Amino acid sequence: MRAGNIKQFTRFSQFTNVGEFNEHKKRFLDDHPQLFSKSEFKAFELLSQYSVVVPGVANAKIDTLVERSGEKGEGVSRASIIRMLRKAKKAGILTVHKTYRSGGGFAHNVFVFNRFDPPSETGVIQREENETPCDSRIEQTKCEAETINLLRNHQDQKINIRKESASTNTTPDDPSLKDLDETFTPDNVPKEFIQAVKPFYNRAIEIYRFWQKARLAYNKYNFDMPLEFMTHVVIDAFKTTIFHYKHRKINTTFVQYFYGTLNGMFGVQKRKEHMAKKPRYNWLEDVACD
């Protein structure tokens, strides 16, 4: 991705205005009160201040943030900013894109804040104490273990993989988060992904959680292109997981298998991206003609 003015990266913004950006940032901080140290929190707030021209998008250099923090009083070290970025990426609130100069070479990062809609009310996916731990460091203690029940849909004979509550106290006038269908899925989830998932998971919170898992896997790699441009890879990983689930080849949970499959596919995409940047050696040009 080419370096440029902040207006060039408007397409990455997930917010309609600064107020909406601040609201999602507040939700994230309220849900992760212990994530940042004092200095890391200052770095997070400083980066947020550079994300108002285009809501939720900043292209400030780390050195600029360090210098700016010193002008405002007690400065923030470069190490604190880097730790903050690492934690924010792992938590899924931040995506970092690299840019390159037209003549080659790294230019600067583009920091993109993601929407945060914590699914605190849902009871669709339950945590199991005896579940196999997740191997990925990204998930660590946040690794979610679900019990997947395969139910046959008598109307269209398609599978519907979800854990349903045994009872509910909600009424049609006061639906809970788990009662919302796929039409309520947040706008930052691509429509084609929703269409691919809804025959199997038809609740908004379920679809949204799969997309959040995809973003966690995506954040492990510094891709030049946004996740939304790689939706086809996420869909392929989901379909592969469905195939192996139907053939009873999944020994972990469905979501864990999906995450691992997608992580592997993203690894392949990253290698392709890396090779595309390297000049190809044409050995035919070095062969002397007799």
Describe this structure in words.
It contains eight helices and five strands, in the order ααβααββββαααα. By secondary structure, it is mainly α. A three-stranded antiparallel beta sheet has the order 1-3-2, covered by helices on one side. The chain has a two-stranded antiparallel ribbon with strand order 4-5. The longest helix has 24 residues, at 254-277. It starts with 17 loop residues before the first helix and ends in a 13-residue tail after the last helix. The relative contact order is 0.11.
Topology:
Layout: H1 18-31, H2 38-49, E1 57-58, H3 62-71, H4 78-91, E2 94-100, E3 106-113, E4 150-152, E5 159-161, H5 191-197, H6 204-218, H7 231-246, H8 254-277
Helix pairs in contact: 2-4, 5-7, 6-8, 7-8
Short description, anyone?
The chain is mainly alpha-helical.
Strand tally is: 5
Shape: globular
Main structural class: mainly alpha
Order of helices and strands: HHEHHEEEEHHHH
Largest sheet: 3 strands, antiparallel
Rg to the nearest angstrom?
Answer: 22 Å
Unreliably modeled segments: 120-160, 163-172
Question: Level of helix content?
Answer: 25-40%
How are the strands ordered across the major sheet? 1-3-2
